[in-house]
Amino acid sequence: MADSSLSRAVRWDTVVGALLVVVLLLSFGFVDGFGNSLNLSFLIGNTLPIALIALPMTLLVVAGEIDLSVASTAGLSGAVMGALWNQGMTIETIIPICLVLGVLCGLVNGLLVTRLGLPSLAVTIGTMAAYRGIAQIVLGSDAVTDFPSQYLDFAAGRIGDTFVPYALLPFLVLLAIAVVALHATPFGRALFAIGASEEAARFAGIRVKRQKLLLFVLTGLLSSLTGIFWALHYASARYDNATGLELSVVAAVLLGGIDFDGGKGTLGGAVAGVFLLGALQNVMSLQDVSAQSQIVVTGVLLVLSVLGPRVARQIAVARAGRRAAAPPPLPKTPAPTS
Amino acid sequence: MTHPSDTGPAPVLALRDVSKSFGAVRALRDVSLELFPGEVHALAGENGAGKSTLIKTLAGVHRPDAGQVLLDGEPVVFHGPGDARDAGIAVIYQEPTLFPDLSIAENIFMGRQPRRALGRIDHKATHSVTADLMRRLGVDLDPDRPARGLSIADQQIVEIAKALSFDARVLIMDEPTAALTGSEVARLFGVVRALREEGAAVLFISHRLEEIFQICRRVTTLRDGAWISSELLDGMTEDDLVRRMVGRDLDELYPKQEVTPGEVALSVRRLTREGVFTDVSFEVRRGEIVGLAGLVGAGRTEVARAVFGVDRWDAGEVEVDGQALVNGAPSTAMAAGLALVPEDRRAQGLVMDMSIERNIGLTGLRTTVKAGLVDRGAERSRSLDWAVRLQVKYARIADAVGTLSGGNQQKVVLAKWLATGPKVLIVDEPTRGIDVGTKAEVHRLLSQLAADGVAVLMISSDLPEVLGMADRVLVMHEGRLTAEIPRAEATEETVMAAATGRAAA
Ligand SMILES: Nc1ncnc2c1ncn2[C@@H]1O[C@H](COP(=O)(O)OP(=O)(O)OP(=O)(O)O)[C@@H](O)[C@H]1O
Ligand SMILES: [Mg+2]
């Protein structure tokens, strides 16, 4: 990890990680009801949807793209799940159908971006509205709640008396896969190149469009997985499930030091950002801060998170400049022979 | 420390004992330089010697760590390029810095557009002044077209026009000719001579030594950031100048090995991209170096791009080693053994924010893999190996490639592609911005690659390079191949005749 741009980003990771620890410690110390295992499992359970979608979102933003339709895709999956359940289908058939639906949602985004060359911001604002609209058509204003109990128990339950939700375990597996994919595979390496300079990536033989398409599809898939989790976790499938979740995901990812311009950041930072945001939201809820005010706080964090890494980087550059007092020797060109 | 001295008028712009460091790199140490009105002054030195840094110091981009900038003999501090511009100093930087979405005219008048009543921009005036400048430079560029998509040479011409649009007392040019061919260079020199007659002081950088001798009166040489000499060019030879720059005698600049060509490695048949090039057919055999010459805009780069697959072609076919390439698919071209060193290293050749190591590593993502993961050890040794073989001058292999000097960036692009062990190597301006010493090195490398059985297609605007290195010269004119000239018959005259469409093809 000696890459200079990376090491600067790592510094921001550390900042966010440290911030997370500080917030957790303060909350344990000063916020009533924070430290008990029930609240902690709530915190994690409520943060998992953000965390799940943050995985592919991080990869997308590193590659210089974004997907704002994720929450609507999640809502649509939940709605379809509810509607099919009402039709009497088994949950074992419904879940794969919903996942395929998520893949299709991602595919539409990806094709519009890569084939037509449209900016992903515009495309996914459009599909954000469209997918949510379809969700409403599918389920109307119903709320489906009577899913099989073993599924509800898995999605909402925790391991024994601990604060660890069952659902955290599959997330950790997905996180490990994402970390390896982004930071250790040729695929991930190429994403950084694409985000930093798409043209140079293309000239290096990287299949830019194909990689981006794949990312959008993965994002759709994980969004629908999140939608399924959401409906089971809260035992309620409604068309407006997860509304506004995209704001939290994007805020968390940027807070974690993923550069909005692409090409920079680490998944560790992004996940730290997610849980920092989750912890703050949990504390605000415990303090009876209204939902509206929480959105304001998220918005402010979003702005700060765009600023923060930049400021940190500038400080790092300034410091590197001052450290130049005792220079190590440069590799020299051959000495004069005449 | 000896000071350069000259009798005659007072220097209009000078540096006295200037030093400048970037972190561990001491780019300039105690450098002095004097620019006199009515004189073209050359700045010479190897890649990374500090030439561009010196220029940026004169232009107010960098503030010197020590020493002074003198304007008309008085110490000045430029707080930014704007200050220098207001003092009558026009600068053409090594790397074009145009805004892609603005038109050529808007780029030229960026921030100082002629105004009409109520502060509205006078588009008519900007248009006509720009058209005038283009005419003076003898190029045919529409002032209203956006800068996006201009070739490197055209971008450089716009930069030149921008600098000329000031009534500058001092004109500073950092490798303005690097991507230009003979006739554009001649035009530029005509304009420079006119400015010189009007009393302007000109500072000129070029790695093409013959250009320095053509247009300059004096030369200042830098080596590793240190001032070596300032002297009259009169009576100096190219060898003298090279010795000042590199501190030793240089080997042969065009070390061409005789190789008997093998089978056909690259075969291009009737390739057409509508409106860009038409019916282009040629072959390159193993062991051959084929030169592709032509004026700026003749379509050479476009053919290379289509062959490699970054652009699609409309008709025709391309084969590497008898295997047909897929239209518009660089990854399959790479897999077939094709490599393209593109002309624009900043946009196409390199990811500027990425490290040297990872940039070279980008072409090895399919090969330096273990169990599906990037093999970091193999990646590092592959990158180090090639960086060392091409004598890239860097502090750490993990430094961002954007901190290297222009010539060293070019070497990294070469390293990145040579590391793939290609069967067919297309190089587009392989020595653009590379110093003489390294140029000889690159030529030796190309020659060695050919001797090892690689088929090389070399696009170059540097005619002596084409003549010195190529077994055959293909010439393009307005999107068509107009001549194929064997090495024995290739001369400046025959090639230029075909390039300007004067030859009976
Ligand atoms: N912004 C920067 N940050 C760090 N190092 C730099 C920076 N700019 C220049 N350098 C270093 O300073 C040295 C001199 O660079 P400079 O660009 O002046 O060379 P040059 O003589 O113009 O070379 P070339 O012929 O290749 O253009 C090089 O070692 C380069 O890596
Ligand atoms: Mg330079």
Describe the protein.
- The complex is a heterodimer of chains A (338) and B (505).
- Chain A is mostly helical and 338 residues long.
- Helices cover 72% and strands 0% of the residues of chain A.
- The longest helix of chain A is centred in the last third of the chain and has 32 residues.
- Chain B is 32% helix and 25% strand.
- The N terminus of chain B is likely disordered.
- Chain B has a 6-stranded mixed sheet, sandwiched between helices.
- Chain B contains 17 helices and 22 strands.
- With 505 residues, chain B is of the alpha/beta class.
- The chains are: A mainly alpha (338), B alpha/beta (505).
- At the A-B interface, helix 8 and helix 9 of A face helix 10, helix 11, helix 12 and strand 18 of B.
- The site of adenosine-5'-triphosphate has 21 residues of chain B, from strand 2, helix 1 and helix 14.
- Chain B: GO terms for molecular function: ATP binding; ATP hydrolysis activity.
- Chain B: It comes from Streptomyces griseoviridis.
- Chain B: It is a peripheral membrane protein.
